[in-house]
Amino acid sequence: MLHLSDDIHNGSAAWQKAGVTLPTYDIEAMRQATKHSPTWVHFGAGNLFRAVHAPIAQNLLESGATDRGILVAESFDPAIVDQAYTPFDDRYLQVILRADGSMKTSLAASVAGAYPLGEDPKPLHDLRLVFRNPSLQMVTTTITEKGYALVDSQGQPLPWIAPEFEGGSDKAKSAIAVITALLLERFKAGALPLALVSTDNFSRNGERFGQAVRQMADEWIGRGLAEKGFGDYLRDKNKITFPLTMIDRITPNPDKEVGRRLKALGIADAEPFRTRGGTAMAPYANTEETWYWVVEDDFPAGRPPLEKAGVYMADKDTVNAADQMKVTTCLNPLHTALAVFGMLLGYPTMSKTIADPDLKALVTRLGYVEGLPVVEDPGIFSPKEFLRQVIEIRVPNPGLPDTPARICADTSQKIPVRYGITISKYIRAKDLDTADLEAIPLIIAAWLRLLIGSDGNGTDDAGRPVKLSPDPRLEELQRILVDIPLNGSAKKETLTTTIKSILADTSIFGTDLNATPLADKIETFLTAMCRGNGAVASTLHKAASAW
Question: What angle in degrees, to the nearest 10, is found between the helix axes of 228-235 and 175-188?
């Protein structure tokens, strides 16, 4: 059996027989060059990093465009490094799942070092030395949108952030605090330049990243824990930048079936697991063929030649247009729609949802009819073609084991962007009317229908309890919806009163929906979906048939 930590060059024939493409560059020489002159550090060692960033570094190494690898740090769940990197010599298998059911497998070895930022102080000490090195050019992140939050809705520091505000860099544990502490090291080393590049999946991510870092630094400066010049350094665009980005690759959790297929090829390291911190990991990362990364080209310390690995380097306006296209029209809203209905209708995977003709009709209308009229073409690729790939190729890919439950996580936080922006554009447009929207109110009604239940369980279309995905507004929303009957006795007038406060919540929808024709449509759809078992499917089918 083959192990990822094996001497791959002496055993290359066995790997080739297993269908695994091996690195052709000198791994040890790459590690030594990176140790001496690092250029790229990434925060967030999970599966998206393994699907996008590390393969880009691998591509650059393979082409000879660089001799340096990538360093990765993990603060949220340091066990990822201890359990998914260290035992495998920082290597993993990248498994691309093609739509025809085949797999393309390669051994990724571009990670030159991994830093578990937990109780052991040594990894952070070593990372401080990296940040003091003038060769460092860029820091990228995948810490999820919640990783940038420092205060609550009242402006008070979150419980785990408060000790960092008060204790300064010595108390840094969260990703933002650690990154700020490392930037303080770079400031002390001569105010060296650096680009900090959020690749988390939300709009204007670079701006949010910069705000969070500067807020952390200002708290320290205000308490005398850092000098004022540090704040000036973080605001000097000739020194520190926070480029905007759009990133896109569907990357489900590791699939057991992929592991079984790898084992059948003779690869021993092929068992998915949960880390001690609860993260789903494996010695491999399974993902789709298609990917996009668009980056604002603003790097004061220089950068690796990312464009040689397929990255779109662009100006800020182009990145914004590409991001808005993806997250408000051509991918994310479709994903959420399919996931919500997938949970209601009992579909186990995303590919099964879009195989339902009514759901395909729903997202076809959502994208082409309701979304494209308000999309700005980024100019680097066609929104219409992007949308076609999502509907016809990417989501239907049966090899991707993505689940509605994964996509449904934090839906209340996603709706403002995935639907709220389109609604706002319709309200502002002279030649568009929110009364013409049909798919969006149907999806919102379905989401509310899914939430009817209690204790974190919703109710599916067969009347069965369904475990709902984590959402910070879940308990609050379920309290409002809990008394809506699902046996057909719900009156629209009563239901309208019940959900009025939800539809008025601008933090969810971006506008008060009660002031638009959408409220009546949502109430009508929701009333129909509460008429007993099978009512969701019949309401969906009636709407889809009319389109």
Answer: 100
